[in-house]
Amino acid sequence: MKYVRKIFDNFTLALLGVVLIATFLPCSGDGAVFFGWLTNLAIGLLFFLHGAKLSREAIIAGASHWRLHLLVFACTFVMFPLLGMAFKPLFVPLVGNELYLGVLYLCALPATVQSAIAFTSLARGNIPAAICSAAASSLLGIFLTPLLVMLLLGAEGDTGSGLDAVLKITLQLLVPFVAGQIARRWIGEWVKRNARWLKIVDQGSILLVVYTAFSDAVVTGLWHTVSAQHLAGLFVVCGILLAAVLFVTRVLGRVLGFSVEDRITILFAGSKKSLATGVPMAQVLFVGGGIGAMILPLMLFHQIQLMVCAVLAQKYAARGVEGVSAVS
């Protein structure tokens, strides 16, 4: 029981509870609109507080950490697609050809932003570098993902929504962060003193993303899209893919001589795939086709990565002087 409790801590149990609530009581209609706005506000507040917490010197140091950023981008846009193709002989028998294409689409997507930064923050990693890498990954994905989709799937799509995506990222992430930087001179010390309870913002933003995303999946027929056999196989496929990525990112960070804080950032920023970017992008890239099977692997992978990374983040957060080598 103690071992189970160690894995399923309060935050992980909260995530499981949110998934169950979304399954049986999904938000829809006006409720979905409300939770969508609430999630956006929580994410904006998250970035505002990060802007208020970080000194300009720390941000410059994070932005100039080019070795870390290159590794994160390589994991996101090179390693993921290579693993997706390499595992084809194993994945296709488990999920079928249609869902396998969805797995390849998942591999072509940029990293998620808010959860990568929130988990890095919870795990006491290099937050400035995480912000730079995750935000840049989303921007690069606007241009790289359609190209990767064409290479991996032979799909063609209209990328005319790229400007809208850039605008959304700018408004939702960059503007609050800059506002926090401006307000730092007035609220910086208050934010520092109250860092412990402000962690609720990090956790709350993740819970809101899980609920709104999973609710939308349930309302649009998540449990009727594929057979039970293929759904079970998809769990296995997503688990294998995530385990492989987490293993490789952890090994690369250690072999290349990064610090523990940098390795945490590489682990969480390099292993994520964005549901918020992937779903609307799929509607553009796969117009006229059945996008349900294309985004189902992404939806499932998104939930699994949140659960697994919640456990990992708590493990890293609990490290002490003696525990650094144990989690490194």
From TrEMBL:
Keywords: Membrane, Transmembrane, Transmembrane helix. Signal peptide: none annotated. Gene3D superfamilies: 1.20.1530.20. Pfam families: SBF_like. GO terms for cellular component: plasma membrane. The keyword Flavoprotein does not apply. It comes from the Bacteria. The chain crosses the membrane at residues 7-25, 31-49, 70-87, 99-119, 131-153, 165-183, 204-226, 232-253, 274-300. Coiled coil: none annotated. The keyword Transmembrane helix applies. This is Bile acid:sodium symporter.
